Amino acid sequence: MLRVLVKLNICKLTRESHRYHHCCRYWLWCLRTVSSLTSPVKRIPFEKLETIDDHSIKFHQFRQILQECTSAGDLRSGMSVHTHLVKLNINGFLMIWNKLLSLYLKFGHIHYAHQLFDTMPQRDVVTFNTMISASVRDDYDAFELLHLFSKMKKEDVKPNHISFSGLIGACNGLIALRLREVFHAQTVHCGLSSNAFVGSSLVDGYAKQMRLEDAIKAFDEIIELDLVSWNIMIDGCVRNNSKEHAVRMFLQMLKGNARFDGFTLTSIIKTCSKPGDLKHGMQLHGCTIKLGLAHETPIHNSLITMYSKCEKGMESPIKIFGSISEPNIISWTAMISGFVQNEQSEEAHGFYKEMLRSGVRENDFSLSSILPVYGNLANLDQGKQIHARVIKSWFGLDLSVNNALIDMYSKCGSFEDAHLVFMKMEEHDVVSCTTMIMSYGQHGKGKEALEILSKMESEGLVPDGVTFLGCLYACSHGGLVEEGVRVFKTMTEVHNLKHKQEHFACVVDMLGRAGRLNEAESFIDEMGIESDVLVWEALLGACRLHGEMELGKKSAQKIMELRPEGHGPYILLANIYAERGSWEDKEVLREKLVSHGLKKQLGCSWVPLERMPY
Length: 614
Known about the structure:
This protein is mostly helical and 614 residues long. Helix content is 69%, strand content 2%.
């Protein structure tokens, strides 16, 4: 603990000592005057300053003054303290200088804070920790972090668990990802990797890098696990789409008699995202009720998402939403997303309007959720209105919102608008490029779609399976068979991606559209995908296009065997018979359709009425 009193420098002459003491009294009087004029603090802090007869001053009271200035938001008085501390030429009392540093950083005066940091007579671990914490808040780059750490080592200041936690937490961006590993090595060297504070930062950092195995290893090194450590680990598993690890960690937490809170349950509920997870999700819902946590809004929001994904319809989410006392933007967005997932676009539109009427303003997530509604409804006018709101709300720079805009315009048939949004984006990700490739494919622009793929690879973006599916789709609709086959091979030979049934079906469709039906059938045999109903449906569609009856019969028969409850093959084959004039065969097929209890699904058309399609 710092000494409460500091002796004045011993002066050889008594009159020099009196002169210095008089100077101190003068500056204290100035501080009192400034405080009485500028400080919003009810109790003027500078009135507490005292000097005593042995030529000492209670400089520790400066610390209290700075604390009160920070709490009251009185920057001007704090700067006055700084001025007089400089004039008094105080070389010690690091606690006072650290308080002043915190004051500048709290008010966002980064430049002043750096100036103070560079001119401080001494720096300790608290000084560096204060600057590191600021780097976390203000997203400093990796070079600034490295500079702070190097300066710390150079001045022989030993970092503690708070130092490393801040350094590791501030490692964001491509350059800083490797820097996290450097700091991890330093924690091991200093014997702090087992600290809960440091370990939790490592777990969170590796989880955000999608390095779950490294996150688990860092978690296992922690000696004394606390609730925060468990929550970060479980949330990291969920973020990495590892339901198995998340559930295992949760059960391990329960076996260790560790207490859990609403954040724990919110994270573990997110693992329930498929219809088969409904029972597990309902058990967790019951757990929240028994523990008295069901009133928490974040838990309500996670339950809305869980029931929307696991249960057919929106009855349960609507009930849960109605029980929320104060729904936030996340609650509204979860409901809108749920309606979209359950193909209830009209209800989603109505819910969005209700949200606006209640005074809730959109954010980037809500806008990304509502835009697909108007793409599904093919309502270009409403979609453009949302685009206008995006521009007014300054979310036009958000990547996810722009991706949703491209998708909406593409589905509404406005290719020019989709292309314009794509070209005006400052940066693209895999989703942006994939969405644009799909848009090109819908409009028969296969060459342009392949150009996007080449541009992605040149910019360092790694295409995924959906990207290649879009390219195959574009080649199919653009008549680029050879290019499509090359893309299909590149997927495995270059990018080491496994083909899925959608990719096989797309190749069959591509060959079929080009009239190369025999090659399409040979492709099915060569790939060993005779039991895949999608490829036969693609081939049957091609036979319908080119009027190929025999291969069409074979394809329809395969589909009937693999999916007997479907009416599609009966209808397509009947149309082939009709086009070839085989009316008797068509009638027999129709009777067979009725005898199996199947019925053709009725078609529908959109009719605009009061700017909404019906």
